[in-house]
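New to this. Please check this fold:
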Amino acid sequence: MTHAADSRIFLKLLAVCLIISPVFANAAGEHGHDASMRGPITDYRPLTPDEEILQSVLDTYARAMEQKSVTIMEQAIVPGDFSTIESGYPNWTWEDFRDNHLLVEMDTFTDVKYIIKLINGELQGSLGFAIYQYTASGKMQGKSDTVSISGLGTAIVEKTGDSWRIHHLHTSAPRAQLEGAQK
């Protein structure tokens, strides 16, 4: 089996685990939370070396959003093999995300602040995942009020050459926030 085939199998298994884990967590009561997993890791302990790598990749993604930089974004993601789903809206390729989402947001917003904090994550071999909390805010062109949204996300990361990059992102925010941000 090739490395690419192994990677695809790992990603499929990881996706299944991420999909079914809430089912088991809800069965555990209080939505499966324990005291140590209610927020960002740094709220209760220092990051491990692997967690520092994951946080660094997420920080690069956030910096690209704040600086409105496609060049920085391409340092955070796998350009030839990237996809994202944001609150139910997919972009299946880097080009689709860049042209129909990222560049549109970069033209629409000013004074962007983007904060990502790792909640949980792991690296194994050349693949890994990060579960994180995010807050994004900015001013829409022509308006004085700042709009803000926060939620949770999952990133699948892959080691490419000597750096870790995001292969896939999936984010969600509470529906009330999404509806409020669209008004």
Notes: Residues 15-36 have pLDDT under 50 and may be disordered. The chain is about 40% helix and 35% strand. The two ends are 50 Å apart (CA to CA). Helices lie at 3-27, 49-67, 70-76, 94-108, 175-182.
